[in-house]
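Blackboard transcription, Thursday session:
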Amino acid sequence: MAVKTTTNKMKKRINFVLACMILVGFVGLIFKLYIIQIVEGEKYQKMAINQQMRSTSIRANRGTIYDANMKPLAKSATVHNVVISPNDIKDETERELIAQGLSEILDVDYEMVLERSRKTGSYYERIKTKVEQDVADQVTQFALDHDITAIYLEEDTKRYYPYGSLASTVLGFTGSENQGAYGLESYYNKVLSGTDGMVVSAKNAWGTDMPFRYQQIYDAQDGNSLVLTIDETIQHYLEKHLETAVAEHEVHNRAVGIVMNVNTGEILAMATKPDFDPNEPLVLGDPQVAQAVEELNTEGNEEEYKKALSDAQFAQWRNKAISDPYEPGSVFKLITAAAALETHTVDPYNEVFNCPGYYIVAGRRIGCWKHAGHGDLNFAGAIKGSCNPVFIQVGQRLGADNFYNYLDLFGFTSPTGIDLPGEADAYLHSLETLQDKNMASLSSASFGQTFKVTPIQLITAVNATINGGKLMQPYVVSQVLDPNGNVVSSTQPTVKRQVISEDISKLEATLAEQVVMATDGSGRKANVPGYRIGGKTGTSEKIDAKEDGVVTKYTLSFYGFAPADDPEIGILVALDEPEDGSAYGSTIAAPVVGSIFADILPYLGFEPEYTEQELAVADVKAPVLVGLKIHDAQSNLTQEGLKSRVIGSGSTVVRQIPGVYEPIPKGGTVILYTDEDTEPTTAVVPDVVGLSGMQANQTILNAGFNIRIAGESIENTASQAVSQEPAAGTEAEIGTVVTVTFTIPDVEG
Amino acid sequence: MTKEENVKKPKAQRGPIDLTFLILVLLLLTIGLVMLFSASYANAYYIMGDSFHYISRQLVFAVVGVAAMIAVSYFDYHILHHFAYLLMGVSIVLLIVVFAMPTINDAHRWIFIGPINFQPSEIAKFAVVVLFSHWISIHYKKMDTFQYGVLPFCIVLGILAVLLILEPHLSGTILIVGLGAVMMVVGGTKLTWLVGGGLAGVIGGPLLVLALGKWDRAMGRIEHWLNPFLDPRGDGFQTLQSLYAIGSGGLMGAGIGNSRQKYLFLPEPQNDFIFAIVCEELGFIGAALIIILFALLIWRGYVIALRAKDRFGTLIAVGLTTQIGLQTILNIAVVTNTIPNTGIGLPFFSYGGTSLLMLLGQMGVILAISRQSNLEKE
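(Written on the board underneath:)
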């Protein structure tokens, strides 16, 4: 029966095949799985999680950066990346339709889309990134209208800076992947960016939500927000005046300014001009630089052009206030003075020095800025007049050890540690160099030359000389808020150390006030009527930039503080390489600081207190202002007890109201036009007849005119306006003087 | 003895079916269905709009298939002698008809008849098993000659290979040639011929591919096999996503239902790459256990073959079992990027109603053979 039964040979061969299959096939596969899952598992898992996280979650929203009054300086909005999946394109007609539609809606190249859409086998081709919501809606509508499934949107976020270039060197900007690339955005990147989507399960590869409940690993954590100490309004004024100064004096190497609360270390404003727009950080903000770079963009010159462009970009991103050390010049005399007073090295009033206009150190003649010499003067006068020979003598008497000790105590030997990236170190003389017997280094250092400090180090230190002697920790971020607005952490003012005693600090403030308030003070151009302001001028020789051994480039600076009797606000402004090499900090930088004070002190709620002299109601004649630089004009007006209002964006006065030599009462405002083609601003003269002195004053000022009071004293609250000139209802240019006559009505009974 | 006598044998005694084999089949089928549901529901929801799209269809075929398997197990497998030439004829016709069908991924592999679609290569595999078993059982003694032991097999395999490469369907070609070769080994073809044939295949195979104009396609596959990172968003995409899934599984796996890669990352996770999701959800331990289950099934299939009543039964059982074995090995080798991506399903797991139905029918044939097993040993 079993004729055809299976033979032994067959059985042997079956066993052979079975053995091969099991040993080579199955055991081999298990081994391969072991390699992938156990040996290399982590590698693949990491890659898998990477793609799942990137595509499966909406990115964590980056936190907002607010100014001190919760105005948003940087905020994020949802945008979309438009992606096509060529694999899902049905046919050639649809391919062309997609290319047509997307190229029109997204303003991209038709051929590019077509080419990408031909990559069949691909599931992911990004056509355009960071598309705004309204455009994304058009894409969705287009896909729906034509029943296209191969187009989809990925959510992404984009950073906006609503105030444009405002505080750009402080804020920095973000890169294409929303990572902080510069400034606060970089320093606080971890705080702001939050944690990207760890909800791996919640999204699929299309980036849409899954309908299934599925194990969540971590929630995506939106970034925290920052509240800055910077006040947008103060920042605006600082930048406005810096910009004007840069234009007026053709500042070649940018201007820098810092406004700081001297008692807390809060940075109220910090700017470098020209700067850039963080919305488009790659665009060169300075038109002159942009043009110079663009001229290099010629055929065959790509390398040089690229390098110039990238150098210019890095340069405009630099925050000069913290990154660029410079010779502090005479502003540093406040430090030498504080050290000398604290160590009782000098009697400020009773010791008499003589300044012949120079001082010989180690056989070398060091000049005073006042070549004729200051003659006999005391130390207070030396501060007021910024006398180098006196400071050289005081510095030598102080000695290298003390000098270096105070450099250290005032914080110059290390960066301040402000919460901004890229803070530079100072370039100081070593103690050994200062100790040299010929005292050359000590002598020049005592009036702020031959070494470099950063602006932030300098303002922090000089603040300590007048704020009661405390070296404060400067900071920019006052609070960190969670996404719901709850305070996560807040920065408290930190006293680093008491450098000098409160009494000495008080004395120093008094001495520094004379620099501005005295009629012969070197910083008198920073004066603002109604306020007590102190300060110190600085004219620094840029020793690195000597040409044939002669200093040709200067940094002109001014440090001011107010109110001088109880300091709260400190301002440092430095103009790096203005065109006019013969100018001084006293003539150029002081008016800038004065103008900033004139704007921000009223804003900060400091009421002007006019001295009797200032209050004297007397007409003055409007000075000749046409043809002057704005800050010079403003400074001239300030000296006359007048205020100013600038209309236009030029840097030179072309017209003034009231006109030259026309009478205007003290405290009045002169309107300065800076553009030839600006139409005169006019207003209707209001009716003030019957109003009290105070009411009439307010009404006329509010309408933009100047008021000149005639008749009986308005100090008497009972006085009433009886007539006015020009008459009510007349159209007149703002700034015009309206003369109002008052009388005290008879009181019955 | 003539063929007629062979077929006209008295009614075979019907013993019990091989329970171990049946249990292994049902176990793999059950696990396969669970994993198919898990792997497919995200894709089904997004692309078909119904999470149950794939599993509901597969379930129907599985139920019908199990019924068919049981039914087939009651037939006397010797009737397959009658169909040996017919099946092969039909296969070759269908493999020609397929060129008139629309392409999927630029290949003619599927025949569409109304709602039913299937790959003629599936039928061809069965036809090879039946025809070769038929020939070998008749000409067993002459198998060591060239005329009987080599030539007819090579002609049939040659025709099928050309048709399949033209589709193109490289994996089907490899599978059928491998299957035929195993049949010849077991059938008794001289080993020298087989070694020579193997060498000829190694040289001739690529030449055939080249001659038929599919060289670039094959080379592309190989390039992306060697370096899937070459085009991670394009041609390397599926392989990379598969490796991500397998690697993510680690030792213990993410747990059933917890794959992340199935959420539209791994394309068509219900088809050829389902094993990647299995690895991700069940880990190395689960995946290895499933491979061991397959190995046990192969072992049991061969045991049935060894115990079969006659050579025809032995050869049919060897052929059908080998087919599952080869297909499993090729599939997992593709999924783990051990060999280039060829497009071949995993038995009992991958989605495909008609192929599951045919697979279970063939399991029925093996069970039918086990009923008439040579019980001398027991």
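Lecturer's comment: The radius of gyration of chain A is 35 Å.
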